[in-house]
TrEMBL record:
Coiled-coil regions listed in the entry: none
Record protein name field: DNA-directed RNA polymerase
Gene Ontology CC annotations of this record: mitochondrial DNA-directed RNA polymerase complex
Keywords: DNA-directed RNA polymerase, Nucleotidyltransferase, Transcription, Transferase, Transit peptide
EC number of this enzyme: 2.7.7.6
Top-rank lineage group of the source organism: Eukaryota
Family recorded in the similarity comment: Belongs to the phage and mitochondrial RNA polymerase family.
GO molecular function terms attached to this record: DNA-directed RNA polymerase activity; mitochondrial promoter sequence-specific DNA binding
Reported function: DNA-dependent RNA polymerase catalyzes the transcription of DNA into RNA using the four ribonucleoside triphosphates as substrates.
Organism: Larimichthys crocea
Amino acid sequence: MKKQVINAKKKCSEMHSLRMDALYKLSIANHMRDEIFWFPHNMDFRGRTYPCPPYFNHLGSDVTRAVLVFAEGKPLGPKGLDWLKIHLVNLTGLKKRSSLQGRLEYADTIMEDILDSADNPLNGKKWWMNADEPWQALACCMEISNAVRSPDPTQFISHFPVHQDGSCNGLQHYAALGRDVIGAKSVNLMPCEVPQDVYSGVAQQVEEFRARDAASGLKIAQALEGFISRKVVKQTVMTVVYGVTRYGGRLQIEKRLKEIDEFPKEHVWDASHYLVRLVFSGLKEMFTGTREIQDWLTESARLISKSGHTVEWVTPLGLPIIQPYHRTRTQMLKSTIQHINLQISH
């Protein structure tokens, strides 16, 4: 019972925190309702920009994104309504494998649910509640319903943001730099009927390696049969681009394997070691240039810092980038009263 009390209290405080968070965001939204405002941004040393207001911005949670629209509207034009529909299907997360045309056709088959969500969000069929991003989906339903019911949808003035996203953007850059055709295709840099999914591609490659090892009698490969999925490899593939090591990759895969209840716990250690090796090999085969470019960059950085300089370059936009990373060294200062250890990081 003590455990249950602890859990109940924890749940209660988590709920309270979520409730306050939501109320705070909504109160800011209510305060700014119908106002035109700007988000000042901060830029870090790499040239990435982040909005300064921390609680309420366009990079926030589903709720904050759902209540923000652009101040300047544009007429939808001939293709605008189609893009709103595609955007809505993207927000549901239901048709990740379909082509844009397929997503559009799907949206047309569920128009009734979309309009019902817009008209009776709380008492209707509540189709929007099952989306991956429910509040943005509801906002999009309302926008579509307004556009469809206007006299001429092409002339409808919309303020609604529609998302476009890269697919594993780091690998897109490497594939382009290394002119990797196979790699480029798997991150949608080559024309293709349906969207390619690099994570499934790597998972497939890893599965082929595993089947081969299992056939030749490797115990751990046999134990992993049926457990290699997109989810297990996704995080590692994504972070390899940002320089994740085998060590970090193994921890990520270990975490994913522990989440699978059916997977025997005693194999987790060996399996994660084995899989991280396969993921790295799979990536090497698909993105031949990536590893070489990474090694070249690592080696260059090593030599530059060895000569006592920071790694720096100027981007095509003219922004000078200086890597602020310095190895800390310690210096011992001895005096008659005490010894002081100084951490010097510049």
